[in-house]
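Lab meeting, item 3. Inverse folding demo.
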């Protein structure tokens, strides 16, 4: 598997995966993905070594002005169901965290409170639960945890 930039021609497949992964909520539209790329946010695609098939995708936004004032937010991570439990989500998350570490930024995200596998993944990468956003996901009304991984300095990343 290889990671590389998400391309606009990948968006139709991203939308298909979203509809499979989030049927009871409001899956991202083509417009949402285009907007993220237009904004210059950091988006990755996971592909098999031997083809251009899209296995998964992930996105991160970083905001701020200078060192110590940046914050990063994981906007999405999605892996096609037939490719889950193969380390793709972990690889995508790690790549997003490397990008956030370049800015020495804390990383925030929201995750469904009932998504055990995602919670385990995030907690294994240093995320902590900050609180609950009631009825965050719509239209299902599912709750979400807000989680944070503290900023890592260059010395911490290098060590």
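The presenter then showed the designed sequence:
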């Amino acid at each position: 598997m290889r990671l590389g930039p998400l391309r606009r021609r990948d968006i139709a497949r991203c939308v298909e995966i979203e509809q499979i992964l989030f049927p009871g909520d409001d899956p991202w539209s083509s417009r949402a993905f285009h907007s993220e790329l237009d904004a210059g946010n950091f988006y990755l695609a996971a592909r098999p070594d031997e083809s251009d098939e899209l296995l998964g995708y992930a996105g991160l936004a970083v905001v701020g002005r200078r060192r110590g004032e940046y914050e990063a937010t994981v906007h999405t991570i999605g892996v096609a169901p037939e490719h889950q439990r193969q380390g793709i989500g972990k690889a995508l998350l790690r790549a997003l965290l490397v990008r956030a570490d370049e800015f020495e930024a804390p990383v925030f995200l929201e995750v469904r409170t009932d998504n055990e596998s995602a919670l385990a993944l995030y907690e294994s990468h240093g995320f902590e639960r900050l609180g609950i956003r009631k009825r965050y996901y719509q239209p299902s009304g599912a709750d979400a945890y807000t989680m944070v991984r503290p900023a890592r300095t260059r010395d911490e990343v290098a060590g």
